[in-house]
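INTERNAL AUDIT FORM
Audit reference: QA-55
Scope: verify that the stored structure record matches its stored sequence.
Auditor: D.O.
Record contents follow.
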Amino acid sequence: MRALGIISFEDNTVSIDGLDEFRPVAAIGMMGRYRVIDFVLSNMTNSGIDNVQVYCKEKPRNLFEHLRDGSDYNINSKRGNLRILYGEREFPAPVYNTDVANFMLNMQYIEGTNVPYVLVAPSYFVYSYDFNDMLKEHERTKADVSVLYMNTNQGRTRYLGCDSLEVNKGHRVTVIRRNMGRYQRAKISMEAYLMRKDLFISLVKEAYETSALYWFKDILRDKVDSLLVQGVPVGGYIACLNSLPEYYRANMELLDPANVRKLFKKDRPVYTQTRDSSPTAYKGEGKAVNSILANGSVIEGTVINSQIGRNVHIGKGAVVRNSIILTSAEVGPNVTLDHAVVDKYAIVKTVKELTGTEELPVYVKRRDRI
């Protein structure tokens, strides 16, 4: 697919409270061994896009360490390229740090690519998709801009803050508005846009001239009447990780084998940085039920309906239920966790019980000792 892939960062409506204090949303762990960005980046490389730019709002170190030179994602270093880009200047306030501002600061790298199309997609939507199907629809309909969207009957409780689309019978987008939870049934934009490179550059420059606070989706909202914006529906498993409850819910949903099969396809693997480590060890009464556990962990207690990252230690007599434990965390002996998210290198030992809910999971911050 002859397109420049751009993975954009989240706007100010996206906040995975606690977790995004220490790294960009794109670098947050998923399912024990993956990072959030792995899914959209794998979609791009599986679609034949080997020239990818990853934009980072702040704290780029985690992305540099995880993505490296792109070889883990099947990007050929001789003919392909993976760049991690960010605004290399200080903004007067965080609100000015928009995707449009960063595109302008790095415009030379966009203009210098020898491809006819640009595909822009954010990292915080998790799904499996072949973007070549989007290109076929884009060319068939002769659209100016094509946008992926999903149908949902949970518009009042989920995908809040995302863009909601109105489309006619021919799938032309007629209205773009923010989903404020007014309607149960909604067509949620996945914010993945395909267009000619020259049009993309023109829209970015117009957005920049219109307002210093404009995001790319703002200029598309302005142009929906004058451009042919074509909606492309997507099925299968789709999650939008725009809050801590949604991040928690997605990880719990992916304990269901049916959802896993929809997300992980044999012909579209999900790539990530690989690490060699020993298998998880179960000691004494240690056991796990309906859970996903990464390598290198030691389980001496009980794990139920949970996601366990690499090199995690669950102590003797501990019970971890409906929880997410990230890399190198420790749960001490006889501790009970339910609906908790424990960040990397944290130790839960003195406090013997933490209980949250699906809508308000308990968060233990990175390197905390409690």
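Auditor finding: record pair retrieved intact. The chain has a mean pLDDT of 94.
Action required: none
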